[in-house]
Amino acid sequence: MPDPMRSYLDFEKPVAELDSKIDELRALADAGSNIGEEIAKIEEKAQQALTELYAALTPWQKTQVARHPQRPHCVDYIQGLITEFTPLAGDRKFGEDEALIAGFGRFRGESVCVLGQEKGFSTETRLKHNFGMARPEGYRKAVRLMEMADRFGIPVLSLVDTAGAYPGIGAEERGQAEAIARSTDACLQLGVINVAVVIGEGGSGGAIAIATANKVLMLEHAIYSVISPEAASSILWRDSAKAQEAATSMKITAQDLMKFGIIDQILPEPRGGAHRDPAIMITKAGDAIAKAFDDLRGLDADEIREQRRQKFLEIGRKLGA
To answer: What NCBIfam families has UniProt attached to this entry (predicted)?
Structure first.
């Protein structure tokens, strides 16, 4: 039987069948059968199938990969990259929002402020973190920490992974749009370097509120869009079943966004996606983050703000050209 810890997406069925065959043969080998060579051949075939499959993913398939439940989450990146991490809670206005994790720690020996959206990885943690969809207090907490980081000259790292800001009645009553706008403005006003990494799903204002950064990095199979494909298809065609068509039309992949100048770098994922080797992905992300910080080191506060401002102004100019 296949490993119960493995979770396959619909389009990965050919790979799932090969892996199942490998598991069956390994069981026979454990029982004394001399079939090591046959197992090696099928393993090679499975790896080749996975490589070919992920080399030609459609935007909708990338959306599925970006949402994979076993993909490394914000908490995994913090655990793997940040030492002495101290989370801070509350926006000092209403309460705590656990959809957005925020705190201070050390990244490769240097102080850093970390903001990240956490979706959760089990029923209990998904409910606790509200599936990564922050309420106004989450964004006001982010503003509070960014202002603190700016005051003490500490760079900011944002880990983006959300379907969007929470659209509930309570969130709207407490000023969701205003909170997102102020968080975006706080990013723009920072006199310290900020780097954002889209590690999974970058959805709408919920993502841009912490991703308005000097450098925006994005994982190879992540997505970043103004609205989800399902919501877009419901609005445009009044049919959520056309989400695949919407995903293709919206240009939400890292490759599309790199062409438009919306992101600055694509981080290659392990074969078969980040969820197949989280440790390697987290290490690669750490190296890219370190380089992004190094590239901007030495700029003063005004130069940092101007670089960030010009980066976002250029996006509109390029798209309008």
So the answer is: accA, AccA_sub, PRK05724.1
Residues near 223 by beta carbon (within 8 Å), at least 6 away in sequence: 59, 62, 63, 66, 198, 201, 202, 247, 252, 253, 254
Q: Are 201 and 163 in contact (CB under 8 A)?
A: yes
> What is the C-alpha to C-alpha distance for residues 20 and 39, in angstroms, rounded to an integer?
11
**What does pTM read for this prediction?**
0.90
Cβ neighbors of 240 (< 8 A, separation 6 or more) are 230, 231, 233, 234
Q: Which two tokens stand for residue 41?
A: 């051949």
CA–CA gap between residue 250 and residue 227 (Å, rounded): 9
For the four alpha carbons of 285, 288, 290 and 293, in that order, the dihedral sign comes to: negative
**Residue 303: per-residue pLDDT:** 97
User: What are the residues whose beta carbons fall under 8 Å from the beta carbon of 10, sequence distance 6 or more?
Assistant: 64
What letters, b where the CB count within 10 A reaches 16 and e where it falls short, cover 76-110?
A: bbbeebbeebeeeeebeebeebbbbbbbbbebeee
| pLDDT score recorded for residue 166 | 93
- Reduced to 3 states, what is the DSSP secondary structure of residue 267? strand
pLDDT reported for residue 3: 43
**What's residue 253's pLDDT?**
95
Give the span between the Cα atoms of 173 and 170, in whole angstroms. 5
Residue ranges for the chain with pLDDT beneath 50: 1-4, 320-321
φ and ψ of 267, to 5 deg: -100, 115
Return the pLDDT at 39: 74
